[in-house]
Amino acid sequence: MITITQLGQNARLAAHQLARLSSSAKNQALHAVSAALLAHTDDILAANARDLAAAADHGISGVMLDRLRLDAARIQAIAAGVAQVADLPDPIGTVLRGYTNADGLEILQKRVPLGVIAMIFESRPNVAVDAFSLAFKTGNAIILRGGRDARHSNAALVDIIRRTLHAAGLNADAVQLPDDPDRRLAEALMQATDYIDVLIPRGGAQLIRSVKEKARVPVIETGVGNVHIYVDESADLDMATRIVVNAKTQRPSVCNAAENLLVHSAVASRFLPQLAVAMAAVHAVEYRADERAQPLLPNAVAATEADYATEFLDYILAVKVVDSATEAIDWINRYTSHHSEAIITRDIAHARAFQDAVDAAVVYVNASTRFTDGFVFGLGAEIGISTQKMHARGPMGLEALTSTKYYVCGEGQIRE
């Protein structure tokens, strides 16, 4: 059984070696990993089939099974993400600013790797590869701790990556996936201040809360998406219908799916019945509604306070009728998880006020929240969606995994 000390020492050594790699060497290795993933599609699918069978025995829901499931198309997308990261500009070594100070010192501020990243995540196998590719491109070693439901899938993916790195003459410990189900290992990662430079939890509210409570290492909070869409009184209701249906049903198990719907009272009696018909044509949805919305939706049940604060990750939608855009903004800021929020409106003033006042990493006007994604935003893959206000917020791509360092050159100056 590997210890946190061994993991940490392996990662530190790998990080020091990665920091010296050229951009071309990193890119070549990433393209090799992309090709290897495609070449081993059958092995990955076989491992994923084992996870799917075990998850079904555990009674996992169909929606959550979809998060776990891999097929040839999804593996192609994972491999394409690795290749896209390889083709992105390398931020390491970028000069953010340079100047000569009053003492004649030449000062440069450059981007550098963070060092060692730890990631604790739940059962989405693509996360392991996305996290590796971004960490590797930025010269960081990464320790992955995946959920039990994706145990075999993650192991297969990481094994392919490690073998590919080794074949290229690189340190395979650039990525480590300890195969130890003991939760004490995850807690040890949270405490490993001697080895871990940053910890990124990616998963549900319970995981995020546990990490925040127990971690001593720096944490970047990601993932939880209690996402709202507000349909304003001036909204194009056909547009609003398409957007809400897409945001709720296109893939309900992900963090950028809509969980809450707010509708202006001036259009609620027209919009909600129209939405219910369109939604039913795609997939049955359970509505949990306030007293004004409930009569307008088929088989709606009364919403509780907890419903408005819940990330369902399922075909469930909490619905509330409001009397103004200001009321919608205040409601959203009360319940938001600071992930993604949207307004559907033709009122430019309302759109600007909403984007300025809503406290979230991504705020949309007249578009589905399903676009909050590193790949869609042009970042290649993503290591998560940061809901904090530190150096990284929103989809976290390459720059989010860097720090800066000052390079100072003089000619014998001393401070008087």
UniProtKB/TrEMBL annotation:
Segments forming domain Aldehyde dehydrogenase: 9-283, 316-378
Cell compartment(s), UniProt: Cytoplasm
CDD domains assigned: ALDH_F18-19_ProA-GPR
Record SUPFAM superfamilies: ALDH-like (SSF53720)
Matches recorded under Pfam families: Aldedh
Enzyme Commission code(s) on record: 1.2.1.41
A GO cellular-component term linked to this record: cytoplasm
PROSITE patterns the UniProt entry points to: PROA
Keyword Chaperone: no
Any GO molecular function: NADP binding
UniProt pathway: Amino-acid biosynthesis; L-proline biosynthesis; L-glutamate 5-semialdehyde from L-glutamate: step 2/2
Top-level taxon of origin: Bacteria
GO BP: L-proline biosynthetic process
Family per record: Belongs to the gamma-glutamyl phosphate reductase family.
HAMAP family: ProA
Role: Catalyzes the NADPH-dependent reduction of L-glutamate 5-phosphate into L-glutamate 5-semialdehyde and phosphate. The product spontaneously undergoes cyclization to form 1-pyrroline-5-carboxylate.
Name listed for the protein in its UniProt record: Gamma-glutamyl phosphate reductase
Origin species: Cardiobacterium valvarum
Name of encoding gene: proA
